[in-house]
Amino acid sequence: MYEAFAVAIVVFLTVGGQELLGFTMLGRPIVIGPLIGILLGDVKTGLLVGASLETIFMGIVNIGGASAAEPGLASALAVAFAIKLHGGLGVALPLAIPLGIIGLQIKTLLYVAVVGPFASRFDSLAAAGKQKQIVRLHFGLWGLQWFLYALIPFFAMLVGSGATQAVLKLIPNVIVHGLTVAGNVLPAVGMAMLMKILWDKNISVFYFLGFLIVAYFKIPLIAVAVMGFIIAILIAQRDMQVHTLEQKMSTVAAAPSTSKPVSKDEQENDAFFD
Amino acid sequence: MSKITSKLDAAEKKILRQIYWRSFTLYSAVTPAKQGASGFEYSMLPVINHFYKGHDDAKKAAMVRQMSYFNTNLAMAPFIMGVTASMEKQNAKSKDFNVESINAIKTSLMGPLAGIGDSLFWGVLRVIAAGIAVSLAESGNLLAPIIFLLLFNIPVQLVRWYGGQLGYTLGSTYIEDLYKKDLINIMTKAASIVGLMMVGAMTSSMVKFSIKWNMVLGGKTILKTQSMLDQIFIGLLPLAITLLCFYLLKKKNVSLNWLILGAIVISVGLALVGIV
Predict the structure, then answer these.
(1) Is position A211 within any domain?
(2) Which residues of chain A have pLDDT under 70?
(3) Transmembrane region positions (chain A) (predicted)?
């Protein structure tokens, strides 16, 4: 009972909490893992499994409301089961992936079916100038939505742990080994997601530079970040110089001909504000 | 800070502080139809109440106006709110202000700023913070989650705090200026460089895959596959796997869930036949 409460409250305060507190990243596996670990009395497992799940879910972010999984519920339950069943990533991983997908489905359902219908209510309250009711509804819907969401981990912990244990016992060792291998390969998917956001042909060499310096020189990540900043500043300075040079060139070239009333920059701005 | 807000009176400074705090809750009650409309309204209420004091009809009109579709990156939201607040102020002062321009500017800022914010804060900053925290957590450091939250949130909160002030004092002309100077593109490129280098570094430190299978002839191991691969290039297989995933995601539009499922199935399959 205590465990079910603890996990449900963690999900409510982190996954729900970050929606109230401006996506402050409270609901990431690296935060939830150790938190569950402290509450269930095994900080080390929480920390390690949380870190592994963070790398797996690294590429999964909520962009414009679209996502592929909800890592918060998945990591809370997976870490809790890993602690209860005295397993590591081998227990957590086969649970985390399906839970992440189920979590997202339920989150979407709540968002469409519970909060969604109130959109018109907000409109009519605004038209009537009822500020207090708007504020109350704004926070009330938050509480309702995440209370309902937190019921899932509560009941999953209450009824699920015996069943999960029975099922996990049936899995042969070689498959558990395969799942551990999968856990080490899956960060590749997360990295690929991030590359999709950041990749650009002109700067793609820096990806390989980052890989090389860690593979061969074993440089810690913080040093890589600082090196990246130095390179980025140098390149930004060069880009600024090129840009001012280009502007000078274009003003010199455009000066004799007064027949061109719209410069390229103005055209771009027009398109932007259309 | 004193530089940015030096020309504002006490009430305006208070409004900007309220925008900063209230905009935390932007996505508390997200609806499919209007996304963060109620959060935007909640953040703008101090602005509306201040500038339309005593004009009930204008106040209601402003409330309806601000309860409109809003969706952007959270770190960028206060900046847009600042710009919107400065336009509401102008609207309250002058009679011939074009009211429609308020939502037009607001909408035109949402898209580009969401793009910059998502790649800057989600793509780069969060990845750096998580990468550092994960390596700390793996060595058993309990401060890992706290360091993660601080590394991510300190820059984000600074952008949120000063963004609102900048948006309000500089108004809608500012963003035009940024585009004119091409600053946004240069900044996005610089940030992407840091991000890509980090992703490359993390590919090396986090993606692990090694082959156990060796070529055996007459009871003698004649080829140690993994050490041979390491001699060619350390981390060749993890790099190849990551690039393959990237290729499938970007060029073949394979969905993320299929990719995850595929990675699990193939790993288990390779374990069954004893290759890994």
Answers:
(1) no
(2) 60-68, 161, 164-165, 168, 254-274
(3) 27-49, 56-83, 95-118, 139-162, 174-194, 206-236
Residue in chain A closest to B69 (alpha carbons) equals A119
A238: contact with B, CB 8 A cutoff = no
Nearest to A198 among B30, B123, B245 (CB): B123
Asked if residue A237 and residue A144 are part of one domain, the reply reads no
Residues 6+ apart with CB under 8 A from B86: B167, B168, B169, B171, B172
Which range scores top for mean pLDDT: A59-68, B41-50, B165-174, B256-265? Answer: B41-50
Nearest CA in chain A to B43: A135
Whether residue B189 and residue A203 make contact (CB cut-off 8 A), yes or no, is yes
B152 confidence band (pLDDT: 50, 70, 90): very high
Alpha helices by DSSP H, listed for chain B, are 2-5, 10-22, 37-51, 56-66, 77-93, 100-117, 126-138, 144-170, 173-180, 183-206, 225-232, 236-250, 256-272
CA distance A2 to chain B (A): 23
Between B21 and A189, the more confident residue is B21
Structure tokens at A171: 């899995």
User: Contacts of residue B207 in chain A, CB cutoff 8 Å?
Assistant: 184-185, 187-188, 191
Residues of B within 8 A of A112 (CB-CB) are 32
Within chain A, what is the greatest distance between any pair of CA atoms?
84
B85 falls in which pLDDT band (50, 70, 90)? Answer: very high
| Highest mean pLDDT out of B31-35, B178-182, B189-193 | B189-193
pLDDT at A141: 93
Number of domains in chain A: 2
Tokens read off for B35: 């996304």
Interface contact flag, B28 A187, Cβ < 8 Å: no
Give Cβ neighbours of residue A98 (< 8 Å, ≥ 6 apart). Answer: none
**A109–chain B Cβ distance below 8 A for any pair:** no
Chain A contact for B232, CB < 8 A? no
Question: Torsion-angle region of residue B218: left (phi > 0), alpha (psi -120 to 50) or beta?
Answer: left
Check if the beta carbon of residue B109 is closer than 8 Å to that of residue B83. Answer: yes
In-domain check, residue A73: yes
Q: Does B193 sit within 8 Å of A232, measured CB to CB?
A: yes
Question: Which of A173, A199, A225 is the C-terminal boundary of a domain?
Answer: A199
- The verdict on A144 touching B (C-beta cutoff 8 Å) is no
Touching check for B56 and chain A: CB below 8 Å?
yes
Structural domain boundaries, residue A57: 2-199
At B118 the pLDDT is 79
| pLDDT of res. B22 | 94
Residues A8 and A68 placed together within one structural domain of the fold: yes
Domain end position, chosen among A140, A167, A199: A199
CA-nearest of A29, A158, A182 to A103 is A29
* Beta carbon pairs, A and B, within 8 Å: 374
Of A253-257, B24-28, B265-269, the poorest mean pLDDT is in A253-257
Tell me whether A231 touches chain B (CB under 8 Å). Answer: yes
Average pLDDT over residues B28-34: 82
Give yes or no: residues A122 and A243 share one domain.
no
- Compute the distance between CA of residue B115 and CA of residue B111 in angstroms, rounded to an integer: 6
Query: Domain-by-domain residue ranges, chain B?
Result: 2-198, 209-272
